[in-house]
Amino acid sequence: MPDELAGAHALVGDMVGDQAGAWDASGRLPLDLLRDLGTRGLLCAEVPASYGGRGASSRDNGEFTAHVGGLCSSLRSIMTSQGMAAWTLQRLGDGDQRSAYLPRLTGGELAAVGFSEPGAGSDLSAIATRVRGDGESIVLDGEKVWVTGAYYADLLIVFARDGRNTEDAGASGATDDADDVVAVVVPAKSAGVTIERVAEPLGCRAAGHANLRFDGVRLPSSAVLSGTGLSLLVTTALSYGRISVAWGCVGILRACLRAAVAHAKTREQFGKPLAQHQLVAGHLADLLVAEQNAARACEHASELWQRRSPELVTATVLAKHVSAGNAARGAATAVQVLASAGASDGTAVARAYRDAKLMEIIEGSNEICRLLLAEHAVATVS
User: Fold this and answer.
1) Taking CA 49 as the corner, what is the angle to CA 45 and CA 54, rounded to the nearest 5 degrees?
2) Distance from C-alpha of 64 to C-alpha of 60, rounded to nearest angstrom
3) Binning pLDDT at 50, 70 and 90, where does residue 207 land?
4) Spatial distance between the Cα atoms of 178 and 126, rounded to a whole number of angstroms
5) Residue 196 CB neighbours (<10 A)
6) Neighbour count for residue 111 (Cβ, 10 Å)
7) Residue 355 · residue 73 · CB < 8 Å
């Protein structure tokens, strides 16, 4: 284990212990746990040490993310949100903005990133949330839905149409120009911000999913990050989110594999352990193959990420698609192997079954990933 994350796996393992099921049932993560991990630089470990982070590589942070994902997908979801926020600030903020915000994210404050809206999910070009200028200030209006971690967040990074230089962009403030999208840093307790928890989400129940409303939220102009354009903004934050989710799914698969193997080795039917029944053994083999395939896809994506390769965007889509699909199928297989022992809602594999399904939807649905990969194939394969 590299020095940047030395001891982190054991530390988080001790902190989580056997509490993940209770957190999932209550729909809450302990806020003091999140702030403690944040202060240790473990919620966004790739942030450079100069800003209070660990300066971890994508591969090392990915393996750490997989470890946390195998313990508690809700906690891993907070890591993904914090990392997306930090990466967005690193890539799109100017020097003053990085210095102002990044130490807060490595000092115990929590952040969430808002993309989707009631009318803009997979099609983010339909974003209607708008920021406009008003003297030395800006004003933000609009809505965001299913923002992971927003319930706990101190800062919200919100993607919005830039109306500061347009006199009249219509009643909604939206235009068709993909270059007019900006990211705005919004303190969660600002006047005009409403945060409503998503009631009873299918998976990652303790991850603080929330819907947001912004009604005339007034902020200093410095709250708008300097980088602009939908393509840059989305590929920056979404690429980080995709690789983080992908590594988290590797953790889900490893947890399911451990649970299924442990059960199959000790549960006897017809005079021998389940693992010695060929059909059950086939399930275990499928789980191992799924975990290995997902891990290799993530390792490849992290290698390209570290090199800042032009291929990293496609690699993160591929890793997310392979890992999420394998995790959903793998969790279903684990439930099948454990049968009634895994069919209760409080068991780890039942929780994985719900959490993994959500991973096939967030940060680019299976269908969107397939479309992006098909476009890549058409453009590059001859």
Assistant:
1) 25
2) 6
3) very high
4) 9
5) 12
6) 29
7) yes
- Other Cβ atoms less than 10 A from the Cβ of 46: the count is 23
**What is the C-alpha to C-alpha distance for residues 215 and 192, in angstroms, rounded to an integer?**
5
Q: Are 138 and 218 in contact (CB under 8 A)?
A: yes
pLDDT tens per residue, range 41-81: 999 999 999 999 999 999 999 999 999 999 999 999 999 99
Both tokens of residue 248? Answer: 């988290």
Quick one: which of 5, 20, 6 has its CA closest to 69? 20
Report residue 194: phi and psi, to 5°.
-120, 130
**Full-model pTM:** 0.94
* Tokens describing residue 60: 């090392």
Residue 260 has which token pair? 């299924």
Distance between CA atoms of residues 304 and 314, nearest Å: 10
Residues 281-327: pLDDT tens digits? 999 999 999 999 999 999 999 999 999 999 999 999 999 999 999 99
Provide the token pair at 229: 């354009």
d(CA 237, CA 240): 5
Three-state secondary structure readout of the chain:
CCHHHCCHHHHHHHHHCCCHHHHHHHCCCCHHHHHHHHHCCCCCCCCCHHHCCCCCCHHHHHHHHHHHHHHCHHHHHHHHHHHHHHHHHHHHCCHHHHHHHHHHHCCCCCEEEECCECCECCCHHHCCCEEEEECCEEEEEEEEEEECCCCCCCEEEEEEEECCCCCCCCCCCCCCCHHHEEEEEEECCCCCEEEEECCCCCCCCCCCCEEEEEEEEEEEHHHEEEEECHHHHHHHHHHHHHHHHHHHHHHHHHHHHHHHHHHHHHCEECCEEHHHCHHHHHHHHHHHHHHHHHHHHHHHHHHHHHHCCCCHHHHHHHHHHHHHHHHHHHHHHHHHHHHHHHCCCCCHHHHHHHHHHHHCCCCCCHHHHHHHHHHHHHHHCC
Shortest CA distance to 63 belongs to which of 209, 251, 237? 251
CB 65 within 8 A of CB 323: no
Residue labelled with tokens 């928890």: 197
Token pair for residue 192?
């005009």
Largest CA distance in the chain: 80
